[in-house]
Automatic annotation (TrEMBL):
It holds the Pfam family DNA_binding_1. Residues 14-72 form the Methylated-DNA-[protein]-cysteine S-methyltransferase DNA binding domain. This is MGMT family protein. CDD domains: ATase (cd06445). SUPFAM superfamilies: Methylated DNA-protein cysteine methyltransferase, C-terminal domain. Keywords: DNA damage. The keyword Secreted does not apply. It comes from the Bacteria. It comes from Microbispora bryophytorum subsp. camponoti.
Length: 110
């Protein structure tokens, strides 16, 4: 799938794998940076965060958050608006990780 590039060139293969997974997170669901790394079986939360910071603008970045359910710093307002739009379960400024965490396997039932 061709993504819009932001002038940084082609993402490396690891970044492409991260971005492909992020595109598959269903609306209303989230994964932590660590969840993404664990699902892929490579890298870690910081590596996923770096990928998202460099190339994540063309994918649903608001679905990848910190393990405590909070969005990336500076993106809270836009993230909360998108969660409301998608019906993501959250409390205050945190995603409800018990209800909203996606395991990468099944899509939620409507």
């Amino acid at each position: 799938m061709e993504r819009l590039r932001d002038g940084r060139g082609q993402p490396p293969p690891y970044a492409e794998r991260v971005l492909d997974l992020v595109e598959r997170i269903p609306p209303g669901m989230v994964m932590s940076y660590g969840d993404v790394a664990e699902y892929l079986g490579e890298g870690g939360p910081r590596q996923v965060g770096r990928v998202m910071s460099l190339w994540g603008g063309a994918v649903p970045w608001w679905r990848v958050i910190r393990a405590d359910g909070t969005p990336a710093p500076g993106l809270e307002a836009e993230c909360l608006a998108r969660w409301r739009e998608e019906g993501t379960p959250f409390r205050g400024v945190r995603a409800d990780m018990r209800a909203a965490r996606w395991d990468g396997r099944n899509r939620p039932s409507p």
